[in-house]
Amino acid sequence: MNSFDFYSPTYFVFGKDREQDAGKYVKKFGGSRVLLIYGGKSAVKSGLIDRITKSLDAEGIGTVLLGGVMPNPKSSLVYGGIETARREKVDFLLAVGGGSVIDTAKAIAMGAVYDGDFWDFFSGKSPEKALPIGTVLTIAASGSEGSANAIITKDETLEKNAAEADCIRPVFSIMNPALTESLPPYQTACGVTDIISHAFERYFTVTPNVETTDRMLEGVVLAMLHEGVRVMENPHDYDARANIMWAGMVCHNDIMGVGRAQDWNSHHLEHVLSAVYDIAHGAGLAVIMPAWMEYCIEHTDGTRFVQMATRIFGCQMDFDDPKSTARAGVEAFRNFLRKIGMPLTFAEIGADPKDIPRLVEMNNIGDGVTGGYVGLDKQAHFDIYEIAAGLK
Amino acid sequence: MNSFDFYSPTYFVFGKDREQDAGKYVKKFGGSRVLLIYGGKSAVKSGLIDRITKSLDAEGIGTVLLGGVMPNPKSSLVYGGIETARREKVDFLLAVGGGSVIDTAKAIAMGAVYDGDFWDFFSGKSPEKALPIGTVLTIAASGSEGSANAIITKDETLEKNAAEADCIRPVFSIMNPALTESLPPYQTACGVTDIISHAFERYFTVTPNVETTDRMLEGVVLAMLHEGVRVMENPHDYDARANIMWAGMVCHNDIMGVGRAQDWNSHHLEHVLSAVYDIAHGAGLAVIMPAWMEYCIEHTDGTRFVQMATRIFGCQMDFDDPKSTARAGVEAFRNFLRKIGMPLTFAEIGADPKDIPRLVEMNNIGDGVTGGYVGLDKQAHFDIYEIAAGLK
Q1: In a domain, B320, yes or no
Q2: Helix (H) or strand (E) holding A175
Q3: Out of A29, A66, A248, B103, which could bridge B150 as a Cys pair, Cβ 3.0 to 4.6 Å?
Q4: pTM for the complete prediction?
């Protein structure tokens, strides 16, 4: 096991109706004037924004609204948000929404107290500080409510870059599973897929002897296979929503990712898909991740995928041909994704195989290799997109 | 799933040699004068205390030493420590050791800034504040390095009471698995048993539909079954030590215990054993927990134990007689405990069956019932001790 630091100081407030205490928690964590960031009209229509604004009013906390965050959130909105945060002299950011809203808040939090361009932090620079962030989570998927990470897309180039810093971990996150009940089935399934992918990106590691986190990761994926089906059968199953919501957090606050090399190649391969075709990140992952697995099985001894197949998907071990067991695991994964309504092919997400050279170019790896369980060069990127496009 | 709050703000520093930075972390978290609390002579002899003192010196941090903490730590030492902490005007407590040392530090931390008797906090009162605590962990078992809990034994009555408060969560914990390599095999196995018991006390719940934490708990126990055997085969297996150490933390910081009723009856039944016979807590648990399981199987439909048996211990489901599957799970658990050298009976820990009425009396439940997966009245306490004593 590798050495590591782990720090997850977010205060989690989990359960029905708990967003009614948003004001109380903003106050507890030192906020007196809030930029409330949210996404589309549904948060307003449902009365959620109104309820939260009232709870802020009740604590004497001033509120400035910033709506309109879209999936795959853009840098332009961040620049606007930074300006608003400064002009309005807010001292706290409250993100009400899913990963896109929270990531936008994180970018604004860093940018508002920085003299340069916030994009610096999405180009490798570490921030020294950030405004404190609280969240009211309405979509279980990204894990951003408990993570040190954010992803923003640059408007001009569609570059999708990530930032990571402990200072952007939310100081509190309110998680009411009932708020996710109004999410359409497709978006719910995309969230489940994203959560599983966050487990798998950690699971496929070159670090040996990491049994404790291996087993925990397997456990969460097993739970998602069960709860994912349950929530599709009944969108108002509160407990299924609750299990998925907590899994979303633990899969990305890194408590199961410490001490082990991680992969993230499926995420990199996916990011250009959702940027170019404007699809949900989870849908892109459903197309890419099994394709990536198939590629890796053929370019390794396949052991890790055999472990996945037998421990998670209950496949019988074929001792004469272990790779057939590994492939059966990928098939079982695809069957699950299909069952919850996810796309599996380029065609199903409206992606054109002719775009593959462009997609590879956008990944911007030159003559290098993107590290992970299997290092991927340009040709490997081609191959994986071609598998996903059904060309291989 | 139940509503909950979860807050685990400890900064974890994990890996080889990392105790050399103890001074740096004390400084980072605001300490300028430290009460360094430790246990027996081995910490001194091994040079560990010296290394840590030097790292404190290097940061200009004054150090006052308080050694002599014993297993099942006593209130007398806490009173002495509180006096020393006040007299020496320390502003930070550094616990170097295992659960006993850390729990002593937690009790001192609350008592040093409180006008009344620190025992109030072990009798139900909530503390308002505590001195900050850092730890350098040398035994993987209690999870106290990341938990909000402490247990202290009152000298006069041998009462073993618990306190719980977020303000006694360590601000940092340094976890170097190599420091546990010098631990004797028996103590190592006691630690593994304690860790598994912390998972099981959470696992056996009356709360339905808690699949995510169920599966994570099963995962950690599965890992301990594997790593527990590995570490007994080779005490210098760093990775086995590392897996066990991280498992010890995650099993007790409560990330897998949230949203579900917990049990803790095995701990209550055990505490009087270790108090009366002065045995290791883990050894007492190895005797009590399987006996408690057998009792519960006969007094419920056994479903949870069938789940344990099939998912954790790989038992085949007997659909005609599910309870036989449940019992096979307990047998497999005992086989594991035996394999790592744990005692399983009253005789093996020097406990006299004639003491059972006294043990039950010490549990002090009167005509009540101790809550949990199965509520236990006085007779149930008798029965479980008798199972453990081989009388049933």
Answers
A1: yes
A2: strand A172-175
A3: B103
A4: 0.97
